[in-house]
TrEMBL record:
One of its GO terms (biological process) is DNA catabolic process. GO terms for molecular function: endonuclease activity; hydrolase activity, acting on ester bonds; metal ion binding; nucleic acid binding. SUPFAM superfamilies: Phospholipase C/P1 nuclease. PANTHER family: ENDONUCLEASE 4 (PTHR33146:SF26). Residues 1-23 form the signal peptide. It comes from Dyella marensis. InterPro entries: PLipase_C/P1_nuclease_dom_sf, S1/P1nuclease. It holds the Pfam family S1-P1_nuclease. This is S1/P1 Nuclease.
């Protein structure tokens, strides 16, 4: 077999065993939701509890991955398809500058998704069912936009086509950041959230001018974070994990604080 054919075979094998792409995975999304819930105002907490009552839960973590789980629900296939592009944004240029017509045409990106569903959640004239659905999307999309490779570059589809070796298996960089890095911590999401919440308060990133779209700023900041996370030699080793896990954890903590702020504003009386 020629060298080129061996490379192609290896690449196809790696793609075949790569895990499905769900931003942060269930663990990461649950952590973001839990960190946010601990920071809800009394008014927001009461409204969250009221909206979640039909779900038989009070926990944002319980619905944090709902937007990903739609993809496996045949009865919600149309909604999954309609909202598929709202989980991410692919920047066209390496300057990470958000240009709406180019990067989010017709609102079809995570920035547009947040704009849309935060407005529905905040609108008390909307039916509770619509606001509950919006709550589920908002909790999820705030998590998504803080996963750096959900605000990555179009040329490698946010790291999805950037193949790596991780823990002896072939996968892609996007999947490593979705769940692989956090999985090296070895704790379940509840213990992990408690550990992160017990750390000193995180210094929040400075706003980026212009300040007319805060969700776009979050995407630009996540995009900027991708610049140093592509591993040399396409190999994720212990040194890489030690260097990059703190960034992933910081993104989770920042997302939790920001999600709480979004909910507190949207659900204020």
């Amino acid at each position: 077999m020629s060298t080129s054919r061996r490379f192609l075979a290896g690449l196809l094998a790696a793609l075949a065993i790569a895990p499905a792409v769900h931003a942060w995975g269930r663990q990461g999304h649950a952590i973001v939701a839990e960190l946010a819930q601990r920071r809800l105002s009394p008014a927001a907490e009461a409204e969250v509890e009221r909206l979640l009552a039909p779900e038989h839960t009070r926990s944002l973590a319980d619905i944090a991955s709902w937007a990903d789980e739609l993809r496996g629900d045949d009865s919600r296939a149309d909604l999954a398809k309609a909202t598929g592009k709202l989980h991410y944004i692919n920047f066209r240029a390496d300057d990470c500058v958000y240009v709406p017509p180019r990067d989010c045409a017709d609102g079809q990106c995570v920035v547009g998704g947040l704009d849309r569903y935060v407005a529905v959640l905040a609108d008390r004239t909307q039916p509770d069912a619509a606001r509950l659905e919006a709550l589920k999307f908002v909790v999820h999309f705030v998590g998504d936009v803080h996963q750096p490779l959900h605000a990555g570059y179009r040329d490698d589809k946010g790291g999805n086509t950037y193949q790596v070796q991780f823990q002896g298996k072939g996968t892609n960089l996007h999947s490593v950041w979705d769940s692989g890095l956090l999985g090296t911590h070895g704790k379940d999401w509840r213990d992990y959230a408690q550990e992160l919440d017990a750390r000193p308060a995180e210094t929040m990133p400075a706003p980026i001018a212009p300040r007319d779209n805060v969700y776009a700023q979050w995407a630009e900041q996540s995009c900027a974070a991708t610049r140093g996370i592509y591993p040399e030699g396409h190999k994720i080793d212990d040194a890489y994990v030690a260097a990059e896990l703190p960034l992933a954890e910081r993104q989770l903590r920042v997302a939790g604080v920001r999600l709480a702020d979004v909910l507190n504003r949207a659900l204020a009386k």
